[in-house]
Write a structure and sequence with these properties.
The chain is mostly beta strands. It has a domain of 70 residues. The chain has a five-stranded mixed sheet with strand order 1-3-2-4-5, with no helix packed on it. The radius of gyration is 21 Å and the shape is elongated. It starts with 35 loop residues before the first strand and ends in an 8-residue tail after the last strand.
Length: 110
């Protein structure tokens, strides 16, 4: 394409040395985590769904629902659309941990 335009190829075109390997450390990656809070999800005893992501090993609340919400269908829905490896799912009712499950997800360490 560059030769057709009468220009020299940029150096990166011939750079085959910097191949990304997810098993090696280093390199660059980015991710964003959003929290969805529905009506009533800001109550003191709200149901909060949190994931521990493999990328940083930290807990992130991804959903806050009104008290009494069944978290199971929401967890399944969120995991089905997840594109980042998850280590664990935790569910809180207010400040009390009511459920914690390990997740065996592709890309997560064994």
């Amino acid at each position: 394409m560059y030769s057709r335009a009468g220009k020299a190829d940029p150096k990166w075109v011939e750079d085959d040395e910097d191949i990304y390997d997810p098993r090696r450390s280093g390199g660059f990656s980015a991710y964003a985590i959003a929290t969805v809070t529905t009506a009533g999800g800001d109550a003191p005893d709200a149901v909060r769904i949190a994931f521990v992501f493999a990328v940083d090993g930290k807990e992130h609340v991804v959903r806050a629902e009104p008290p009494g919400t069944d978290p199971e269908p929401l967890i399944e829905q969120i995991l089905a659309g997840m594109n980042m490896p998850v280590l664990a799912v935790r569910v809180y009712q207010g400040d009390e941990l009511i459920k914690e499950d390990s997740v065996n997800m592709r890309g997560a360490p064994l």
